[in-house]
Amino acid sequence: xxxxxxxxxxxxxxxxxxxxxxxxxxxxxxxxxxxxxxxxxxxxxxxxxxxxxxxxxxxxxxxxxxxxxxxxxxxxxxxxxxxxxxxxxxxxxxxxxxxxxxxxxxxxxxxxxxxxxxxxxxxxxxxxxxxxxxxxxxxxxxxxxxxxxxxxxxxxxxxxxxxxxxxxxxxxxxxxxxxxxxxxxxxxxxxxxxxxxxxxxxxxxxxxxxxxxx
Length: 214
Description:
single chain; alpha+beta; 2 domains; five-stranded antiparallel beta sheet; four-stranded antiparallel beta sheet; 2 helices; bL21-like_sf
């Protein structure tokens, strides 16, 4: 095979490979030119059309960023830390037998603590991975609230609800029940049995701020 014939075959193969892409590009440009030259008015968003027609539009309440026509904008505030110590000037009523009393309120919230999420209400007790630098009877705040709700409404965060927080009391530091870890390699006379007990912190929910009762 001569060198001229080999080069001609290579050029032909390249043209065949590029033909679909070139066709797609030309068709896309043609559609864009046709769309720009059209004199028809732009289409309205579905929600705007429904509102202009006089229909009732139910809009779910979101914390920030979500508009009626579906446009999503990022939250202005950065995602706060999952747990923080409460200010020392909090007006909590102390009790010798109980410690700090929870403020009864028929609301709920979904709070994120590190990589776990909990649905909590006032006076609930949750166990999380051990929180360092806090002692028993210390009051802490959980500002990373993903959702709030009561009997009549629900507020969804994007990703968190601005200005909302959960106040909790550190009740105890405990160790979880023992979990057995058994490993075996067959036909190798290899067996290992280990135990593990996770360190936990018990938090008593005192108050959920950011929403009122219905």
